[in-house]
Design brief:
Layout: E1 8-9, E2 14-15, H1 31-69, E3 98-103, E4 108-113, E5 117-120, E6 126-129, E7 133-136, E8 142-152, E9 164-167, E10 172-175, E11 186-193, E12 202-203, E13 205-208, E14 219-221, H2 222-226, E15 231-238, E16 250-251, E17 254-255, H3 262-273, E18 276-277
Antiparallel strand pairs: 1-2, 3-4, 4-18, 5-6, 6-8, 7-8, 8-15, 9-11, 9-14, 10-11, 11-13, 12-17, 13-15, 15-16
Length: about 280
């Protein structure tokens, strides 16, 4: 090849084109330098991975501890100590001495408080009356009076009940102590206010209503009561003196809140629990 043919002459410069221009580039790094660069790069990636792993572990631990600290809907929180005094507990009713009684007319037996008096009028009914005691009248005043349990034939209804009365308290379920094989295991007691009574919270009678239970202020149809056999209910009398002759006593509306007093409710519950029907 003739190099002279690539030579061109310009006015101010002489340029020569050659084919060995690459010889002016710097030489490649020695092998040992390249190895160190790769080693440093690898170490950097290792440290980056380690830092990422530690970071992920830290975040995971924080989330776990945070969730653990939150109360769960399926666990019960620890009780908090109360600074208020504990509620006063109502003492259990004292044991009441009783006497057994049976009536073939109504096919039942029961135990009544020994201090009460039984009058059995055959098919006209059976009454069991308390001695004179202090009751709380509907107006909240103490009143000498008596409690009477009455057993009447099916279809009977006291005059004051009329067509519909009202439940002045929620009915209470009472389990029989020793039911016969032919009777239910329990009954409802229903707390009745007659239509003629206008006093709020006034209680005129407590009825054994079998399977019928009532909410407070719910109407009680007379048809429900007359379907029960026999009809058993408790009513109250006001007495002018401790003697309380029959001709002087009058019907009494008591305070429904008195049911919480064991001296009032205890004898009634004792008799009802003992009912056994043939």
């Amino acid at each position: 090849m003739d190099p002279s043919r690539y030579k061109r002459t310009f006015a101010n410069q002489d340029v020569r084109l050659t084919d060995d221009n690459l010889s002016d580039l710097p030489p490649p790094p020695p092998p040992q330098y390249a190895g160190k660069s790769r080693a440093k790069s690898s170490i950097w990636w290792v440290w980056l991975i380690v830092v990422l792993v530690i970071g992920v572990a830290f975040v995971t631990a924080a989330v776990y501890l945070g969730n653990k600290a939150k109360p769960s809907a399926h666990t019960n929180p620890k009780p908090v100590a109360s600074t208020s005094p504990p509620a006063k507990q109502t003492p259990p009713a004292p044991s009441i001495p009783t006497t057994p009684y049976s009536t073939s007319t109504f096919g039942m037996s029961f135990n009544y408080p020994t201090s009460w008096k039984v009058v059995d009028s055959g098919s006209a009914g059976v009454s069991v009356t308390s001695p004179v005691m202090t009751l709380t009248a509907a107006d909240g005043q103490p009143q000498l009076g008596q409690i009477s349990m009455n057993i009447l034939k099916q279809g009977s209804l006291p005059a004051g009940f009329t067509t519909t009365s009202v439940a002045v308290l929620l009915s209470q379920k009472v389990n029989y102590s020793n039911p016969s094989t032919s009777q239910a295991a329990a009954t409802y007691l229903s707390f009745v206010q007659y239509p003629s009574t206008n006093t709020k919270g006034g209680l005129d009678g407590i009825y054994v209503t079998g399977n019928y239970g009532y909410q407070k202020d719910q109407d009680i149809p007379a048809s429900n009561v007359t379907s029960i056999n026999p009809l058993i209910y408790f009513n109250f009398y006001a007495c002018a003196s401790s003697a309380c002759p029959l001709q002087t006593r009058q019907s009494l509306t008591v305070a429904a809140a008195g049911w919480r007093i064991s001296d009032f409710s205890g004898p009634i519950l004792t008799m009802v629990k003992s009912f056994s029907f043939d």
